[in-house]
Amino acid sequence: MVLKHIFTLEDLEQDEDEDEDESMAEFLIRDIREQCSKFGRVENAVLFDAEPEGVMTVRFANGSAAHACVKKMHGRRLEGRLVEARIADGTERFQKRGAAAEKED
Fold first, then answer.
1. How far apart (Å, rounded) are the C-alpha atoms in residues 70 and 45?
2. All residues at 6 or more sequence positions from 73 whose CB lies less than 8 Å from its CB, including other chains
3. Do 3 and 82 touch, CB atoms closer than 8 A?
């Protein structure tokens, strides 16, 4: 599943200046995993911190969970941004720069 407009690059850049236990990227990954796990087992969540559209992907153990999550997440407002959610088609090539941008079980 692909989520867009989850964050802004400015959010992540401001976070680099702060001294906290958890980075903004880590917080977002944890938060999205928790929200998405309500629909089924999440196998992987990736935050693409070089994408200006605020892209994250979430891989579920089964397709029905992904479809249910897309239905719930698409069109939601997050910090004033309209979230776009869709099923990944496998051709996406998003960019990331940070090692903390990925978390697997």
1. 14
2. 3, 35, 36, 83, 85
3. no
CA separation, residue 86 to residues 29, 89, 97 (Å): 18, 9, 23
List the one residue out of 105, 17, 13 whose CA is nearest residue 59.
105
- Token reading at 105: 């079980």
Buried/exposed 57-69: b ≥16 CB within 10 Å, e otherwise: bbebeeeebbeeb
Q: What is the pLDDT of residues 53-75, one digit of tens each?
A: 999 999 999 999 999 999 999 99
Look up residue 41 and give its two tokens.
């087992």
Measured between its terminal Cα atoms, the distance across the chain in Å is 17
Whether residue 59 contacts residue 44, with contact meaning beta carbons closer than 8 Å, is answered with yes
Which domains are seen in the chain, by residue range? Answer: 2-96 (3.30.70.330)
The per-residue pLDDT for range 68-103, each reduced to its tens digit, is 999 999 999 988 999 999 999 989 999 988 655 555
